[in-house]
Amino acid sequence: MSAPRRVLIYGVYGSGKSTLAMRMAEHLGLPWYPVDDLLWEPGWVEVPVARQRSRIEEICRRDRWIVDGAYHGWRDVPLARADLVVGLDFPRWCSFGRLLRRTVRRVLTGEEICNGNRESLASVLSPDSILVWHVTAFGRARRRMRAWRSDPSAPPVVLLRSPAELDDWLAGLPGR
To answer: Of the candidates 90, 62, 83, 59, which has an alpha carbon nearest to the alpha carbon of residue 174?
Structure first.
């Protein structure tokens, strides 16, 4: 396999998309565009979907990129331009456990996530909690990745089912 130049990393919240994007960007020498930075303004104000789409279109017109997610309203844009889709298809317990640990750490440390935004105990306990999003989005994300893999018109899709499988795959990926 030759080194991809345009990569979409996809998975449910907590699966490790951003961590993988950072690792792949370093390994492949590609620029990484964190999707959260495109979606959220300070104060957790969501960017209007049309503006999100415009931002992602600008990135995906470039010859080299990694994006760490694809959401409604513009999912088709990176999917149409990607050389490779990496699907993090980990079991629910794995991704939820990672998400829970990360969320607790962020609440305790006040770690900045994007554009000055931070998670809080109030946000974690709200109906819009990322933990709730994980539970409601898990099945849809999994079905979507698997459908892409079986679609001959889609870019190649690598589904990775465990962190160990991810590490093995990444070790075999050609570098810069």
So the answer is: 83
Residues 86/7/10/123 CA torsion (nearest 10 deg): 140
Q: Tokens 């109906």 appear where?
A: 127
Strands (E) across the chain are located at: 6-11, 32-33, 40-41, 45-46, 65-67, 84-88, 112-114, 117-118, 157-160
CA distance 26 to 173: 12
Q: pLDDT 10s per residue in the chain (176 long)?
A: 688 999 999 999 999 999 999 999 999 999 999 999 999 999 999 999 999 999 999 999 999 999 999 998 999 999 999 999 999 999 999 999 999 999 999 999 999 999 999 999 999 999 989 999 999 999 999 999 999 999 999 999 999 999 999 999 999 998 76
What is the pTM assigned to this prediction? 0.94
Strands, E assignment, 94-156? 112-114, 117-118
- The angle, 0 to 180 degrees and rounded to 10, between the axes of the packed helices 130-150 and 92-109 is 140
Distance of CA 93 to the CA centre of its chain: 18
Nearest-5° Cα angle at 110, 109 to 112: 120
